[in-house]
Amino acid sequence: MSDAARVPTAHERRVRRDRAVLIAVVAVLVLLVMFPFLWMITMSFKPIDDIFAWPPKLFFTPTFEHYLGLVDDEFAASFWNSLVTSVGSTIVSMVVGVPAAYALSRMEARIGNRLSLWILASRMAPPIAFTIPYFLVYRYIGLLDTKLGLGIIYVTFNLSLAIWLMRTFFDATPRSLEEAAWIDGATLWQGFFRILLPLSVPGLAATAILCFLFAWNDFFFALFLTRTEATTAPVAVVNFMNYEGWEWGKIAAGGTMVMLPVLVFSILVRKFLVRGLTAGAVKG
Q: By the 8 A CB rule, do 43 and 252 touch?
């Protein structure tokens, strides 16, 4: 009997039914998770009249007036400020944090654990506890409403995250690989750059994107420590909610633009990101 004419067994029918149910459940969950984002993107292309239409219009003539309005409202400058502070703070956090994590990983366990705990403790405090001290110091030294001042804050909080995450990857890397490189004549830093870092690419990608996300999505510090010159994109979106009325089209367009770099960055490093976030989940 050919495979096409064979009657499926009860077990095969049950497996197919369970698989179909699983696919349906996953599809519904994905739709529920993505619905707010899809609705925001759709609203950013709707004319003003269609945004408030009831019932909502699924078919409409797209318009770019809201995105063009972002340029007129100096949103581009705020977007650039977010990009500079987020990318810059991420680079500095990785450049400083990765070697520090390596040093903590290779020192005596008792001392390394205590230092790591103290470093992580700086990330546990609520941001509001640092707002007034930062504001007073920045006003005194002239860093208020500057990209440099905002980037320093992001480095302060992301550095502990980078050190803590990267130390776990270095702890999982066999020291015998470095020792073999040393026997072959490599220096300490040559073993670090040529052996250890290539093996830690998933961890580097995961740590970098998390540092970038925390800096890019920051609203609290950017709201209190900036005025006009260093305003970031999340704060600029809120400025569309004013006493004259809420500009829903620009809010949706601005939210889409804020979400776009994170989405692009995640897609570019998705392979390393998944490997980095799941590293260490299974032993053996």
A: yes
Alpha-carbon gap, residue 162 to 171, rounded angstroms:
14
The whole-angstrom separation of Cα 36 and Cα 30 is 11
Q: Is 155 helix (H, G, I), strand (E, B) or coil?
A: helix
Round to whole Å and give the CA distance between 165 and 149: 25
pLDDT tens digits, one per residue of 50-62:
777 777 777 777 7
pLDDT digits (tens, 9 = 90+) for 93-131: 999 988 888 888 877 766 666 676 777 766 777 777 788
Cα-Cα-Cα-Cα torsion 45, 46, 51, 57, nearest 10 degrees, comes to -120
Nearest to 249 by CA among 81, 71, 63: 63
This prediction's pTM: 0.76
Count of CB atoms situated within 10 Å of the CB of 220: 15
Burial class (CB in 10 A: 0-12, 13-18, 19+), 261: middle
E strands present in 18-136: none
Residue 97: what are its φ and ψ, rounded to 5°? -75, -35
- The full set of domain ranges for the chain reads 65-278
Contact 138, 153 (CB under 8 A): no
Q: What is the pLDDT of residue 4?
A: 55
| Spatial contact of 260 and 153, defined as CB atoms under 8 Å apart | no
**Locus of tokens 């309005």:** 69
> Does residue 39 contact residue 56 with C-beta atoms inside 8 Å?
no
The arrangement of secondary structure in 65-278, i.e. its CATH architecture, is Orthogonal Bundle (1.10)
Helix or strand holding residue 245 (H, E): strand 245-246
Structure tokens at 134: 């930062």
Report phi then psi at 104, rounded to 5.
-65, -35
